[in-house]
């Protein structure tokens, strides 16, 4: 299973409106027209790499794999609502993938640094957002045992829509 980690920089590019204004698309177009546009932006044989990047960047829509429609289907919803609400200084864990289900919030001020914090026995997390400003390791084991699966996520604004295993405990690191 592949883990998708979305950092702040990636989120900024993915959360653009679905239909970019013409002025925004024009600013992404290459300065000089290419001899002939490649049939696929991923198989540019004779075009320069700058033209290839511009071709990919000028696609006016966000890939559907990253689009999560809101309840009303509005496209003008703020990016935070598509990713799951999680404030600065918080570690947010959701029971279901895609930031769905019960959300558990742990504030940095209430967590012992470098201590194992188990989730309640019946609770487990399948999505998370780390906005603590510190690295957080998520464990499959409720005792933070390194014999099971574990993954460390950066704390500068990381959203993980689906963890590769059910998270049963976590540890916030000093740095």
Helix vs. strand class = alpha+beta
Helical residue percent band: 10-25%
On the 0 to 100 scale, the average pLDDT is: 70
Strand content: 15-25%
- CATH-wise, what's the superfamily of the largest domain? Crystallins
Total count of helical runs of at least 4 residues: 4
How far is the N terminus from the C terminus?
A: 28 Å
Mind describing the biggest β-sheet? 4 strands, antiparallel
CATH fold name of the largest domain? Gamma-B Crystallin, domain 1
Output the strand order for the largest sheet: 2-1-4-7
Report the count of strand segments.
Answer: 8
**What is the CATH C level class of the largest domain, in words?**
Mainly Beta
Order of SSEs: HHHHEEEEEEEE
The 3D shape can be described as globular
Signal peptide: 1-22
Keywords: Signal
Pfam families: Inhibitor_I36 (PF03995)
Protein name: Proteinase inhibitor I36 SMPI
């Amino acid at each position: 299973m592949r883990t998708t980690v979305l950092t702040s920089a990636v989120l900024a590019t993915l959360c653009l409106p679905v239909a970019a204004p013409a002025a925004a698309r024009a600013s992404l177009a290459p300065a000089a027209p290419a001899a002939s546009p490649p049939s696929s932006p991923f198989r540019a044989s004779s075009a320069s790499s700058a033209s290839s990047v511009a071709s990919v960047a000028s696609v006016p829509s966000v890939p559907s794999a990253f689009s999560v429609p809101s309840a009303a289907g509005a496209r003008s919803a703020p990016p935070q609502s598509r990713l799951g609400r999680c404030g600065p200084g918080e570690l947010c864990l959701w029971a279901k993938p895609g930031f769905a289900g019960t959300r558990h919030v742990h504030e940095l001020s209430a967590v012992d640094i470098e201590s194992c914090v188990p989730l309640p026995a019946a609770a487990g997390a399948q999505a998370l957002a780390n906005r603590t400003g510190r690295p957080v390791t998520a464990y499959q084991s409720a005792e933070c045992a390194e014999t099971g699966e574990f993954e460390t996520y950066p704390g500068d604004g990381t959203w993980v829509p689906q963890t590769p295993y059910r998270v049963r405990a976590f540890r916030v690191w000093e740095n």
